[in-house]
Amino acid sequence: MKSTLILLVAACLGVSLAGQASAQSDEGAHVLALDNSWNRALETNDAKALDLLLADSFVSIDIDGSMQSKGEFLASLKAPGYHAPSQAVTEQSKVNVYDNAAVVVGVFRTQSSQKGKSVTRRERFLDTWVNVNHTWKCVGSVTVLISVN
Length: 149
Fold this sequence. Notes:
Elements: H1 2-43, H2 47-53, E1 54-61, E2 67-69, H3 70-76, E3 87-98, E4 101-114, E5 117-132, E6 135-145
Parallel strand pairs: 1-6
Antiparallel strand pairs: 1-2, 3-4, 4-5, 5-6
């Protein structure tokens, strides 16, 4: 009788854990899709789409160590000297979901034109997302330039 009860509890626990892993996998895929939609918003200079993706408390740390709030980041996209990249691609990324938070780590590549020349830039990034009221928002992003060897 005891062994049957133990087997039953173990089976239920296994099903519960499998369900949690599946839910985390679904949430992770959703966060990766949102992270990739950031690329499209950059290519099209769509500040409204970025506004929806970023939490009001969003903080960005750029490759030069400078920090920007959400408002400053969005305003920089409208600045006279800003040129949207012709291509913004996540080359690789991985997401880890922790209940209502997710961390995306990857490599991002942009193609743009500067002074008539085509420039490719690769950056390693870490984006932190939080699920608030069933809506994922990015609260922080850190990028580091990958030097060309």
